[in-house]
Amino acid sequence: MAKDSASEADRPELRVLRKDEWGIWYDTLIRAFGGVAESAEERELWDSLTEVDRSIGVWEGDACVGTAGVFSFRLTVPGGASVPAAGVTMVSVAATHRRRGVLRSMMRRQLDDVREWGWPLAVLTASEPEIYGRFGYGVGTFQTSVEIDTTRVRLSVPPGTDDVRLRYAVPADVLDVCEAVYARKVADRPGMLARQPGWERLGVLDPESDRDGASPLQCVLAERGGEVVGYARFHVKPEWDGNGPKGAVNLRDVQALDPVAQAALWQFLFGIDLTSTVTARARPVDEAWQYQVSDIRRCAVRVRDGLHVRLVDVGAALGARTYQAPVDVVFEVEDAFCPWNTGRWRLSGDAKGASCERTTDAADLSLSVRELGAAYLGGVSLAALGAAGRVREVRQGALAEASVGFASAVAPWLPHGF
Ligand SMILES: CC(=O)SCCNC(=O)CCNC(=O)[C@H](O)C(C)(C)COP(=O)(O)OP(=O)(O)OC[C@H]1O[C@@H](n2cnc3c(N)ncnc32)[C@H](O)[C@@H]1OP(=O)(O)O
C-alpha cells in the first residue's frame, strides 16, 4: 500500500475509525462518488447507522484517503436461518491515491476482522461488479428493474383481491406497522436482512433533492379483517403532453404477507389515474406480478447483479443453511485471499440441516470460494457455473446432485441497499 519513495512518517496508516473523525471520513467517501452533497437528513441517518468500531479509515496525516465500513447484519439463508453477515459498505479511496493497493489493504483488514468476530459471511453491493471478485465475492442475487406500460399491460389478479381494503397513510406515521410486515417476511426469502432499530428510517428517507419532480413519498396500506397485511411506498411523477396525462408511478417498496394482498397492491399501482407507467428498481427476479401481466415484453424487465456474497468461513457458512435435496459432496476449495478456507470440505445435508467439515477424502467438485459465494443463497446454479468452466466435476454426478441441493425454491433477493 505504501509508496516506495514515502518515508515511514508519510506512509498511510490504516486504523479503526473514531467517532470524532466520522465527518472527514464520510466526506472522503462522498467525494469518491462525485462529491455531490447529500441532504442533511440522509447524512444524519448514515452517521447514526455507521458502526464506527467496525469501520476503518486510511489516513495520511490528517487527510483521510480510504474508507470502509461494516454493518452487523443478519442475513436469511436457504432454510430460513438468520446468519451473522458483515455488510461491507462505504468503500472508497481518494482519487489521488487510487491503484496503489489501498483498497486491497482495507479488504485484507476487513476480512481478517470478520473472521475474528466469528461471522461466516461478508456481503456487499458493488458500485462496479468487477471490483470484488478478486477478494472472493461472487454475485449471489440478481434483481430486476422494470418500466411497465400500464396503458397496454393488464394484470390478472387472484380471487379475493377485492376483499383487501386499501387506504392512504402518512409514511412516517405508519412506520411501525410497515416494519412489522417487513419483519414477518424476512425468514421467507434468502437474501433478506433482519433490520435493526434505526434501519426502518431508510425506507421513508425522502429528501426533496432526490425526487426529480415527483411527489413526496406516498404510502398505501393493505388491510384485511382490520389487520395490516401489506404496504406500498411510492412517488407519483405527474406529466402531461399534447395528448393528455402520462404520469409515472415510481415504486419504492412493496411488501405483503400473502399473495392476495400483494396482488391488490400491484393492482392499485397499475390503476392510479393520470399515470401510464409503473417503474420499479431492485425487485425480486421471481416476483408474482410478472406472471400476472398480459404482456411481459411491455414491462421492459432488466436484470442486474444484486448482493455479492463472500464465504469468510466455508465450514460454518455451508453448515448454516439447509439443502432442498440431500447432498453429500466433497468440495476442493481454492481461496487465495483467505487461505484458511483452502482445502477439502465435506458437506452433508438435507432440508433439515447440514454440517460441513474438513476432510482428507477425495474431492467430488473443485471450485473457488467465489463460486461458492455465488451459489450460496440458491439463486445461481452450480451446474451453470460448471457449464461456464467455473466448477470442475471430479466425481461424475456430483455437480447435478449439488446443484439440486443448493437451489432455492424462492429466488434470493436483497430488499434494500446499504
Ligand atoms: C461496497 C461498496 O462500498 S462499493 C463502492 C466502491 N467505491 C467506489 O466505487 C468509489 C470510487 N472508486 C474508488 O474509490 C476506488 O477506485 C476503489 C475503492 C474502487 C479502488 O481502490 P484502489 O485503492 O484504487 O484499489 P487497489 O489499488 O487496492 O486495487 C486492488 C485491485 O483491484 C483492481 N481495481 C480497483 N478498482 C477497480 C475498478 N473500479 N474496476 C476494476 N478493477 C479495479 C485494481 O486494478 C487491483 O487489481 P490487481 O489486484 O489485479 O492488482
From TrEMBL:
One Gene Ontology BP term is: aminoglycoside antibiotic catabolic process
Organism domain of life: Bacteria
Q: Would the keyword Transferase turn up in this protein's UniProt record? A: yes
- Key words, A-Z: Acyltransferase, Transferase
* Single annotated GO MF: aminoglycoside N-acetyltransferase activity
Per the Swiss-Prot or TrEMBL record, the active site comprises Y132, F418
| Residues in N-acetyltransferase domain copies | 12-158
Chain sites annotated for binding acetyl-CoA = V91, S92, V93, R99, R100, G101, V102, L103, R104, S127, E128
Under the heading SUPFAM superfamilies, the entry gives: Acyl-CoA N-acyltransferases (Nat), SCP-like
Is Transcription regulation found in the keyword set? no
Which sequence ranges form a coiled-coil region, renumbered to this chain? none
Q: Output the HAMAP family linked to this UniProt entry.
A: Eis
Question: Family per UniProt?
Answer: Belongs to the acetyltransferase Eis family.
- What NCBIfam families does the database record attribute to this sequence? PRK01346.1-4
What does the subunit section of this Swiss-Prot or TrEMBL entry state?
Answer: Homohexamer; trimer of dimers.
PANTHER family membership: N-ACETYLTRANSFERASE EIS
What name is this protein filed under? GNAT family N-acetyltransferase
Q: Which organism is it from?
A: Streptomyces cyaneochromogenes
